[in-house]
Design goal:
Distance between the termini: 25 Å
Strand content: 15-25%
Strand order of the largest sheet: 2-6-7-1-5-4-3
Number of strands: 11
Number of domains: 2
Order of helices and strands: EHHHHHEEEEHEEEEEHHHEH
Largest sheet: 7 strands, antiparallel
Number of helices: 10
Structural class: alpha+beta
Radius of gyration: 22 Å
Helix content: 40-55%
Shape: globular
Length: 306
């Protein structure tokens, strides 16, 4: 399974089409929350029992009926994935069990984007794969797809199993899940490397060669503080927030999103270089709390772990 991501933009920039996408995402979130509520209220709820309310909620709520039936099933499946992961962690005796929680409004300041997932219906690509049309009852309409050349080739050549619409701080994205297996051929070099992940460095190998991470968060800290002050000045307690408040919130969210993407891009490229230059990679992931540095601190997040 290969997942590609392409930015989905409206052809005419209609505000109603964006609102339709937002309604579809909110409805998918509603279906997931209902499934979690059913699991909490009733004992011995399995996966088949959790999928039964899809049809009942569609007949009870008109807005739930607008969402594609497979998209409703996919939302319930995501709820069951969180429940099964919770059971698995309990059996393993993990410290953080990850109890399934209800999804609320999207927290743009973190990497928690809201999504709606379609399987094989509810969407249709054009023949040249330049546009995508969402055909459910929300009538989101036609969007243009902006992606790289490799993603465009995969859209034309491979079978698409699922389409996921993701909302982030800088717009809406379409993720395509292809039915394919990725294989890369390489030359055998016989190189073996052992690396240790740390806090003052990203990793260090057995030859004492350290990879120092760029401090993207500290480089952007001054601008983040400025945007945070602007946001707090526009906040009015007990009243609906103004448009200027939401504009300031989006500016701050985009700044956090940029830092997240910089960290991920640097970590993925470095890991790819390590894998390609060595045949065997052995790594030791030390406990950060044992070193006296919790994960949620700013210094613990700098090595691109979080």
């Amino acid at each position: 399974m290969i997942t590609r991501e392409a930015k989905a933009k409206l052809l005419n920039g209609s505000k109603a089409q964006y609102q339709a996408l937002e309604q579809a995402i909110t409805t998918a979130q509603f279906m997931r929350n209902k499934a979690v509520r059913l699991w909490r209220d009733e004992p011995d709820v399995n996966r088949s029992r959790l999928s039964l309310p899809c049809k009942e909620l569609a007949s009870e709520y008109p807005f739930a009926k607008k969402l594609n039936s497979m998209a409703r099933q996919a939302s319930v499946e995501r709820a069951w994935n969180s429940i099964s992961s919770f059971y698995c962690r309990c059996r393993e005796g993990a410290k953080n069990k990850g109890y399934p929680q209800f999804k609320k409004h999207s927290r743009f300041l973190r990497n928690a984007a809201q999504t709606v997932e379609y399987k094989t219906s509810g969407w249709k690509l054009s023949q040249d794969c330049l546009t995508i049309n969402f055909t459910d009852s929300f009538q989101a309409g036609r969007f243009s797809l902006f992606c790289n050349y490799q993603t465009r080739e995969d859209l034309l050549r491979l079978k698409i199993n699922r389409v996921r619409v993701v909302r982030r701080a800088d717009g809406y994205y379409a993720q395509f899940c292809f039915d394919a297996h990725r294989k890369e051929t390489g030359n055998y070099t016989g190189n073996v490397v052992g690396i240790d992940l740390g806090l003052t460095y990203f990793y260090k190998d057995q030859n004492n060669n350290a990879a120092i991470y760029p401090k993207y968060l500290r480089q952007t800290q001054k601008r983040i503080k400025k945007l945070q002050r602007q946001l707090s000045k526009k906040f009015v307690k007990g009243k609906p927030q103004s448009k200027n408040y939401h504009k300031a919130r989006m500016r701050l969210a985009k700044c956090h999103l940029k830092v997240t993407r910089q960290r991920k891009d640097w970590a993925v490229k470095l890991a790819r270089c390590v894998v390609h230059s060595n045949d065997v990679v052995v790594y030791l992931d030390a406990e950060r709390r044992a070193e006296g540095r919790p994960q949620d601190t700013k210094h613990g997040q700098e090595p691109s772990f979080g």
